[in-house]
Amino acid sequence: MAVKEEYRGQGLGEWLVKALASWAASEHQLQELIIEVESERLPENDLRKRFWQKCGFRMTDYVHTYKWIPETYQAMYLPLIKDTSQTAAKDGQALFKQITSFHHQSFRELNN
Asked: So where does this one cross the membrane (predicted)?
C-alpha cells in the first residue's frame, strides 16, 4: 500500500487500513492481517514501521532474509478479534511461512 507523497499526512492511509481491517473481519471473518516490512534501520523504513504501528500493527522479533532479495524483513500483524487469548505475541518465523506460501501462490497464478 502506498499513498502519494503529496497526499500523506491527511489520514488516507489510516482510513484505508481501517476499511480493509473492517472488511476482512466482517466479510471474511479473518482473525488478523499480516504484512512484511523492511527491517534495516533506515529513516524511511522507520517511518513506514511507525505508520503501521499507528494503525495498530504489532512488530515481531524475527528477521527474515529471502534467498533472492538482499533486504531483510520483519512481519507485523494486526489482530482483528477482541479475544486476547487469540492475539498474543506472534512468532515471526511462523508468520513468514504464511507470507512465503502467499508469495508462492501469487506468483504461480501470475505465471499461469
From this structure: none
Which triple of cell numbers denotes residue 52? 503501521
CATH fold group of domain 11-111: Aminopeptidase (3.40.630)
- Hey, is 79 helix, strand or coil? strand
What is the DSSP-derived secondary structure letter of residue 90?
A: P
The residues spanned by each domain of the chain are: 11-111
Report pLDDT digits (tens) over 84-109: 555 556 888 999 988 888 888 887 76
Residue 21: CB atoms within 10 A of its CB come to 19
| Confidence at 110, pLDDT banded by 50, 70, 90 | low
Residue found by looking up cell 477482541 in the block: 82
The whole-angstrom distance between residue 37's C-alpha and the CA centroid of its chain comes to: 7
